[in-house]
What does this fold into?
Amino acid sequence: MDYVQRYIYAVTQKLPEGQREDIKLELQGLIEDMLEERTQGKPVTDGDIEAVLRELGSPQELAVKYQARPRYLIGPAFFDAYISILRIVMISIGIGLTVSFAVQALITPAETLQHFISYIVSIITVGVQGFAWVTLSFAIIEYAGVKPRDWGSRREWSLADLPEIPDRRLLIKRSEPIAGIIFSVLFAVLFTFSVELIGAIVFKEGQFIGTASIFHVENFARYLPLIWGLTALSIMKESVKMIFGKWTRGVMLSHMAFNAALFILMVIMFKDPAIWNPHFMEQLVQLDVMTPGSEAFEWVESIWNEGRKWFVYIVALVTFIDMVAVFLKVYPIHRGPIKNIENL
It folds into this structure.
């Protein structure tokens, strides 16, 4: 029976400590029952033990069956979507950093070599961050136990498992989450590496004169972790939409929850007056873009002063409209007739 104890040890050592004793007793009872059924009261031989243990399978496979949750970071239900989104994020990072490098090289050609070195370093560091954002997002989705409907059962497949053909209006076009991911990544790249370019970039006679950024660059840098958090949340939101491919109650609720979290984080950042450049109008005058006291100056100054106050309200309105649109897209359809999709 030494092989039995060694087999049980090999299985239980791969399980959480709190489960080992119970599984050990269960396995001992199971093996004894299988041996009794096999021998029918005859003496147990080494051949009987080997046959029973082979029937149970390798300790590694049996340990996996006893685990409450599969031990992998990204499971098969999500792996294809994970690779697709990872590819989109990496390409977006490359495009965003390349455009940023090109603009900076155009503005200050004398510092092109320095910009190029920074560009290469940024490609590596942001690429690692992008990989981490996507992987963490999918790991959280996996850990939360979310599964597409056709991955929810281990029983033998039957015709009853075939999903209903959804209403055409419930489908989420693949281009929608892809565009959302690209926008989120470009947003993060722009605000991380080129926030000083968000504003007025002034050229005269083909020569770069200067910039008037709408943000206070030094103060804005304090919010970079928040920018990365916003990006990670956005990627996670769009990943859920890409995985399911249609609006369901769960997808709708997750979309609303992510939108609410994104809005709260944006309020925290953009309501801080320290991130806005207090010398924006003065810099426009210094760059000879505006003339103090002119009608154009007063109009731009009015927009600048009021725009900062109304920015959060505009974001709130856009977020609210988006959430209402998604809600109305899901619930009225459930009460009405279903129009099948042809040529799927």
